[in-house]
Amino acid sequence: MQAGKPILYSYFRSSCSWRVRIALALKGIDYDIVPINLVKDGGQQYSKEFETLNPMKQVPTLKIDGITITQSLAIIEYLEETRPTAPRLLPLDPKERASVRMISDLIASGIQPLQNLSILKKVGQETQLAWAQAVISSGFKALESVLQSTAGKYCLGNEISMADLCLVPQVANAERYKVDLSPYPTITRIYKTLLTVEAFQVSHPSRQPDTPPELRA
Amino acid sequence: MQAGKPILYSYFRSSCSWRVRIALALKGIDYDIVPINLVKDGGQQYSKEFETLNPMKQVPTLKIDGITITQSLAIIEYLEETRPTAPRLLPLDPKERASVRMISDLIASGIQPLQNLSILKKVGQETQLAWAQAVISSGFKALESVLQSTAGKYCLGNEISMADLCLVPQVANAERYKVDLSPYPTITRIYKTLLTVEAFQVSHPSRQPDTPPELRA
């Protein structure tokens, strides 16, 4: 590993890791990946070594510029503030920034945490699929309504923003949990459009160093 | 209600509403409160009228400067960007800003959503207290570890920041759910210090227009 190159601790299937991988790809930041397998060995995030790096025992975790940052949106905001060159991940207008953060937080606080791996484990194997479907559907109903007034080609107008970095991995989770997406035409349209963008493709769970062969694109 | 005055849709006991009430108090912003009772009438947040305002059917929701913002951290970031005068809620240094956002998101995405009212309802009455205690304790273990390297008088050094606005309401929730706080001396110390600050006192759940008489300070 080259000294000074950012290191992303990531799991191919982690939707929060994917958010950060998209940001790094959009900004053209070269980085190394250290895969943390969230299921193997009872979960590699629970190792003492990793806990020292991130006491929450979660990915993503980014080492960059001499510091370690956890929490995907905090990482993305840091990348934006220190590498503001195009493409911007947040618009310049404060009201538009509020919209981007509102959509991002709706997903990052309002949907994802309720269907992540550790919660589904707590819920129990029998009911976890129904649980995941219920929380995602409920969140998507709200998100669809919000996007109908903010969206252009993307979540906010016609520029890719942090909100899109949250949307795509969340829709991928919805597909994985077999959520019926037909009631959410705006979400689905933006998702499909974004999957054609290179930064979303190279960062895709099917194309990571730790993607198992049977799931590779 | 005076035209142009911000309107906060709030519930006295909502920890996310409290975050925003602290921000408004610190910034000295005069506002009106419209109470949304999350339990009465099956939950006033589920009314058609409120759903139009916030499709997530959650408080806080803030009407300000001609727009409606939901999601507490998006609201606080907007207040900071449009009213940056002292006290700042985020430091100027990007690395310090990353720390503040990391701590804020640890609470706002990593703890609070897992113990909010609608999730506890889903979990069921018999196990909800144990569930809330488990998710808060697990999050506080990580938070205590993070704060041991960031804290001064407050969460980050000696200036109040957005992280403190998240910490105090979360500790109040922990107390409500009878979480043993003895393993978290840094969290507890900062909490007690902040409770002596006027902006945290006037915004306290025990002093809101919708606080029931028996819970009033």
Please describe what this structure looks like:
The structure is a homodimer of 217-residue chains. Chain A is an alpha+beta fold. The first copy, chain A, has two domains: 7-86, Glutaredoxin; 94-200, Glutathione S-transferase Yfyf (Class Pi), Chain A, domain 2 (Up-down Bundle). In chain A, 48% of the residues lie in helices and 7% in strands. Chain A has nine helices and four strands, in the order βαβαββααααααα. A four-stranded mixed sheet of chain A has the order 2-1-3-4, with helices on one face. The radius of gyration of chain A is 17 Å and the shape is globular. The model of chain A has no long low-confidence stretch (mean pLDDT 96). Chains A and B meet through strand 4, helix 3, helix 4 and helix 6 of A and strand 4, helix 3, helix 4 and helix 6 of B.
Characteristic terms for this protein:
2 domains; cytoplasm (chains A, B); phenylalanine catabolism (chains A, B); homodimer; 7% strand; tyrosine catabolism (chains A, B); four-stranded mixed beta sheet; 48% helix; 217 residues; EC 5.2.1.2 (chains A, B); Glutaredoxin
Shape of chain A: globular
User: Gyration radius of chain A, to the nearest Å?
Assistant: 17 Å
Distance, first to last CA of chain A: 26 Å
What's the CATH architecture name of the largest domain in chain A? Answer: Up-down Bundle
- The class by helix and strand makeup of chain A works out as alpha+beta
**Averaged pLDDT of chain A:** 96
- Structure annotation, total helices of chain A: 9
Q: What kind of assembly state do the chains in view correspond to?
A: homodimer
Name the biggest interface: A-B, 42 and 42 residues
- Taken as a percent bin, the fraction of beta residues of chain A is 5-15%
Q: Number of folding domains of chain A? A: 2
Strand order of the largest sheet of chain A: 2-1-3-4
- Name of the level-1 CATH class of the largest domain in chain A: Mainly Alpha
Helix and strand sequence of chain A: EHEHEEHHHHHHH
Largest sheet of chain A: 4 strands, mixed
CATH domain topology of the largest domain in chain A: Glutathione S-transferase Yfyf (Class Pi), Chain A, domain 2
Q: What share of residues of chain A is helical? A: 40-55%
Tally of strands of chain A = 4
Catalytic activity (chains A, B): 4-maleylacetoacetate = 4-fumarylacetoacetate; RX + glutathione = an S-substituted glutathione + a halide anion + H(+)
Protein name (chains A, B): Maleylacetoacetate isomerase
InterPro entries (chains A, B): Glutathione-S-Trfase_C-like, Glutathione-S-Trfase_C_sf, Glutathione_S-Trfase, Glutathione_S-Trfase_N, GST_C, GST_Zeta, GST_Zeta_C, GST_Zeta_N
GO molecular function, one term (chains A, B): glutathione transferase activity
